[in-house]
Input
Amino acid sequence: MLLLVGLVGAGCGKSDEEIQEEFDAIVAESNACNDASECVYVSPGCPLQCFVAVNSAKKEYVEKEARALIDDSDGSGRTCLEGCADPGPLECAEGRCQEGASP
Output
């Protein structure tokens, strides 16, 4: 009986909203910068954003965590845009990597 409960519980992943909240926290701790040259874009995948700006030293960490969160997702609410717009230039504003305004 315990095995059955464990198997049923293992099939339940986190909602898209839960993984988005966790991913937002990961990005917030990974996007500190002093200059735009320290920033890169990461494309985390569905159902997370098309791209996020992070410090280049944290790129692999953010990609790994995004994959783990997506793998842990329950798969409901998969709402991905077919075509993501090209991101604007990177900038370091107020000590954080972010997308700058397009020219």
Observations:
- The chain is about 35% helix and 15% strand.
